[in-house]
Design brief:
By secondary structure, this protein is mainly β. Helix content is 0%, strand content 16%. The protein has no helices and 3 strands. The radius of gyration is 14 Å and the shape is globular.
């Protein structure tokens, strides 16, 4: 099985691609209707949260550049 991939888009959403499920705080599944790719809102402006509806355009800036986290605390 391939890994699920999350892509942090500059000035936009988090693209989720692969085999995944999305649940709310109570563990209830969102009905994805067979989708294997969705975009999750990062800006908080979407009327369809947690999914992105494009409302971020011109209102959200973040240059997504990968970096290493510090070592995990033990």
């Amino acid at each position: 099985m391939e890994k699920t991939r999350l892509t942090i888009n500059s000035n936009g959403s988090v693209k989720v691609d692969g085999d995944f499920e999305i649940v709310d705080a109570q563990g209830n599944q969102y009905g994805l209707q067979g989708r294997t790719v969705v975009s999750i809102c990062r800006c908080g402006r979407s009327a369809n949260k947690p999914f992105c509806d494009g409302s971020h355009k011109g209102h959200f800036e973040h240059n997504a550049v990968a970096f290493d986290l510090p070592p995990k605390k033990v």
